[in-house]
Structure formats: structure tokens, C-alpha cells
Backbone:
């Protein structure tokens, strides 16, 4: 509960926070959905959309926190010990029937799980729970003792542990909620899944069409052909997602697995975005080098994580290299202890997904810079790319204002003369909430206070209640009403604009302008 105990965590510690901040800065607007599916009518509207995006997740964040607190309470508090025992046994039995083990091993695991006594842990009296020793530890030990210390046994245990952690929430909710409410919750999850995945499928298929298919076509497609190709591409993307999800088994926390998959693109995409737009030395070769380096590290990391227990570690042990590789991992991570600790483990790859992602970003960044500097024959004219100077569009109004003491905060926030009164209120509101409240008050003020006078543990429960439930709940209530009403208004405006638009069949994303061979970088 005390954030100052974060150094005791292995996967979600201070270094994970460093990785999150790094990717927010380096990979800004690099993720899918930030290209052709999030383009506003004007640059100003796109800028305001980014500002408003800070408000939209308030309700979702609060709900995730509430669900997590509910599950922790039911599974850890002594008042719910009988229910938690029943849930753990039921969950273990379902996993035993799911993973590929023989009937004898399955029966032994179920027998061991049923023999585990009901917990009697009392918060504040007994030893605090930790990652190393908690109420789930006996069930993990039962699985380890059943599967044995063999390559296949280690893989089976890794599958058991992963499913045990992933399926805890749905099993607890099913046992806690009445059937009707559980059905509504499941329907909500299904609706959220559909509204997310359909957008991603369309985004991926349109990217495949625009960046892979269309450049190789000698004749431009008609609008009807373009739509037909998009539909076929979307179908194949959906089938690919479905087939991979059927046969690929991930063996890590769901958030870390998602991060690992995202790093295939984000490991090298950030430098391409940043230096491709704002450097004079960036080249196409540097962009490909960044993507290959970032994606290559991520692919190797994913394969090592997936095949460590049943193939990689047994091979290292057979060759007599396990001890030496373990010493290398320990020596490489020792300067960063306790935030990065690489210890040889026969079950799990020592390097977690956060660390692999960070390495991928570093190699992607360095590859872009080095290869671009080697292959750049002459600096690129940024004024031409950004429509500045002699390349400025005729009739475009240039908005500029000098820096003064009165407008320094407005400059920092990004407020320009084109902001309306409502835009200024929104921008200042986001700044007050995101910086003054979240950074200064809830973080820096509390941090400095605890450095000189540490809080007792029970104070932190009040802190998180206010800063994670009460305030986000108020923000969620306001933003839900605000976005609902504004969304209806803007949706109507969208359909009016679409009805009045002038169709241009040539506006299909193809670049027809001849290249300037003098601009190599």
C-alpha cells in the first residue's frame, strides 16, 4: 500500500514507471489509431482533441481501481476466507482441466489444491503479504510439486501461474455478482471489445493498403475497388488475429504481454516520428534500421520468454552454460539493483517485458541516428516539409506572439491567439488538473512530506481513497455528461459536413508529386 515499498516489486516497480514516461515522450502519436483514423478538420481541432483526451479515461480508470480493490478484499480479508478458498479451488480445477497434462497429474493437482486449508490471515496482525509469500503461494507450491522440476513441468507450471492470475478477476466477479448483473457486465465487456477491435482492424487493414499494396499498383484504384480491397484486407487481418489468438499461448502478465506486442512497433517507431519530422539528417535507411532494431529485439525477447522453460534453459543447462549465463545476467543488472534484477531462473526468462521494451527503444534510437548520419548526403530542407519561409502556403495566416511575463504560462501550456474562450478554459482546466493537482499536490507535495516525515501505513488508504476514487469519480461524472452532450452535437455536425462535402476520387492517400532527388535526407 505504501508507494515507498515499490523497490520490493520485480515487474511493476520504479523502472516500469521510467519506461512508461520514456515511451509517452518518445512514442507520442506513434501508436495505431493516430494516423488516418484520428485526423481533425484543422490542426487546431486536432490539438484540442489531444487536450480533451486527458479527460476521457477518468471513469474507466476509477472503475478499474474499484474492481481491483474488490477482488483484493474478497481474496485477502479474513471475513471472506470461505469464499476465497472456494474461488481458488474452483479456479485451480478449471486451469488443471485447461492445460495439456495427463489425467493422473491432473487428479494429483486437484487433490493437493483441495487439501490446502482455509487461510486465517488477519491484516495488521499477521506478517504482511508480499510477492514472495502471499495467500496464493500454497497453490503455486502445489502446482510446482505436482508438475516437477523438468522442462515440460516448468512449462506447465508457467501456464498454470499465468492462467491463475489472468482468470482471477472473472472468476471472482462470477462468484460475487448475481446472474443478471454479471450478464450486464459481460455484455459491457463485449461491447468494449468490439468497439476497440473493429477500429484497430480497420486501421491495420487501411495501413496495409496505403503503405504496402497501393505503392506497387501501376494503375490507381477506383473508389469502388479501393473499398473492396479494404474489406478483403480487413477480413484477412481479423482472421490473422483470430488464428494467432487460438494457437499462441503467452506466459506473462497480460499487461506485460501487451507491452511486449506493442514494442514490435513502438520499439523503433518513435525515432522515425521525431527525427523524420524535426531533423535535417534523418534518412529512409535510418528509419528502416530503427524499425528492424526495435522489432528485432522485441521478437527475440518474445521468443525467449515463450520458449525459456521448455527449450532455452534446458539447452543452456545441457551445454553447461546456465551458470555462466546466469553470472552474466547478474553482473549486467547489478549496477541497477534493486530496480533491475536479472537472476537465472529455469521457469521464466530473467529479463521482463519492460526491460526488453526499453532496450528496444534504445537500440532503435541509436540505430536511427547512426545509420542516418552515415547515409545522409546533404541536410534536408525542413522549411519545405513544415511549410515555412519561402514554402509557406499562400494566404495562410501566420500566428505569432512574443514571450512576456504575462503570457509565459500560456506559452508553456500551448495556448495561441487562435484559442477561443472555451478552448482557453479547457486548456487551463487540463493544466490545473494534470500538473497542479496530479503532479504538484498529489505527487511532489506528498513525496517531500514523506521524505521528512513518513506516513503511517493506514494514512495511505485515505490518500488513495481521495486521489484514486473520490476525485476521479467527480471528474468522471463531469466528463461523462460533458462528452455525451458534446458528442451528440459534434456527431450531428459530422454528418452535415459529410453530406456537404465535395468528393475527390484522387484523394485516396497516394503521393503523386515527383521526388526531389536533391533532398536525400
Residues:
Amino acid at each position: 500500500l505504501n508507494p515507498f515499498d515499490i523497490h520490493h516489486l520485480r515487474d511493476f516497480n520504479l523502472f516500469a514507471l521510467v519506461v512508461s514516461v520514456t515511451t509517452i515522450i518518445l512514442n507520442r502519436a506513434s501508436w495505431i489509431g493516430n494516423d488516418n483514423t484520428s485526423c481533425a478538420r484543422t490542426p487546431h481541432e486536432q490539438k484540442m482533441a489531444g487536450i480533451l483526451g486527458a479527460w476521457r479515461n477518468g471513469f474507466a480508470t476509477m472503475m478499474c481501481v474499484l474492481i481491483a480493490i474488490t477482488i483484493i478484499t474478497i481474496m485477502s480479508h479474513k471475513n471472506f476466507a470461505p469464499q476465497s478458498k472456494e474461488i481458488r479451488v474452483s479456479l485451480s480445477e478449471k486451469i488443471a482441466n485447461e492445460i495439456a497434462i495427463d489425467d493422473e497429474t491432473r487428479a494429483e493437482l486437484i487433490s493437493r489444491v483441495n487439501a490446502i486449508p482455509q487461510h486465517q490471515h488477519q491484516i495488521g496482525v499477521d506478517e504482511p503479504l508480499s510477492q514472495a509469500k502471499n495467500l496464493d503461494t500454497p497453490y503455486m507450491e502445489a502446482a510446482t510439486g505436482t508438475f516437477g522440476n523438468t522442462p515440460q513441468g516448468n512449462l506447465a507450471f508457467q501456464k498454470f501461474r499465468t492462467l491463475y492470475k489472468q482468470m482471477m478477476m472473472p472468476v471472482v466477479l462470477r462468484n460475487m455478482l448475481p446472474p443478471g448483473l454479471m450478464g450486464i457486465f459481460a455484455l459491457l465487456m463485449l461491447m468494449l471489445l468490439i468497439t476497440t477491435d473493429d477500429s484497430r482492424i480497420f486501421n491495420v487493414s487501411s495501413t496495409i493498403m496505403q503503405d504496402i499494396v497501393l505503392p506497387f499498383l501501376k494503375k490507381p484504384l477506383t473508389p469502388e475497388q479501393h473499398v473492396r480491397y479494404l474489406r478483403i484486407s480487413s477480413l484477412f487481418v481479423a482472421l490473422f488475429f483470430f488464428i494467432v489468438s487460438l494457437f499462441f499461448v503467452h506466459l506473462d502478465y497480460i499487461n506485460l504481454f501487451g507491452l511486449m506486442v506493442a514494442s514490435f512497433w513502438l520499439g523503433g517507431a518513435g525515432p522515425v516520428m521525431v527525427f523524420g519530422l524535426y531533423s535535417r539528417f534523418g534518412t529512409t535507411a535510418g528509419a528502416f534500421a530503427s524499425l528492424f532494431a526495435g522489432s528485432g529485439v522485441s521478437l527475440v525477447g518474445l521468443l525467449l520468454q515463450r520458449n525459456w522453460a521448455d527449450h532455452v534453459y534446458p539447452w543452456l543447462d545441457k551445454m553447461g552454460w546456465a551458470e555462466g549465463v546466469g553470472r552474466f545476467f547478474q553482473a549486467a543488472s547489478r549496477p541497477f539493483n534493486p530496480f533491475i534484477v536479472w537472476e537465472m531462473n529455469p521457469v521464466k526468462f530473467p529479463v521482463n517485458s519492460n526491460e526488453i521494451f526499453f532496450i528496444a527503444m534504445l537500440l532503435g534510437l541509436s540505430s536511427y541516428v547512426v545509420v542516418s548520419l552515415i547515409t545522409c548526403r546533404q541536410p534536408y530542407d525542413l522549411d519545405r516539409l513544415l511549410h515555412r519561409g519561402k514554402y509557406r502556403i499562400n494566404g495562410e495566416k501566420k500566428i505569432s506572439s512574443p514571450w512576456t511575463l504575462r503570457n509565459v504560462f500560456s506559452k508553456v501550456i500551448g495556448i495561441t491567439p487562435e484559442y477561443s474562450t472555451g478552448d482557453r478554459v479547457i486548456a487551463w482546466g487540463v493544466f490545473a488538473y494534470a500538473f497542479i493537482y496530479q503532479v504538484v499536490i498529489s505527487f511532489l507535495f506528498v513525496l517531500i512530506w514523506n521524505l521528512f516525515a513518513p506516513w503511517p501505513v493506514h494514512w495511505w488508504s485515505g490518500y488513495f481513497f481521495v486521489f484514486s476514487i473520490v476525485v476521479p469519480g467527480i471528474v468522471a461524472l463531469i466528463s461523462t455528461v460533458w462528452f455525451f452532450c458534446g458528442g451528440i452535437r459534434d456527431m450531428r455536425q459530422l454528418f452535415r459536413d459529410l453530406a456537404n462535402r465535395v468528393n475527390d476520387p484522387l484523394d485516396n492517400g497516394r503521393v503523386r508529386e515527383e521526388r526531389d532527388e536533391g533532398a536525400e535526407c
Summary: The radius of gyration is 27 Å. The chain is about 65% helix and 0% strand.
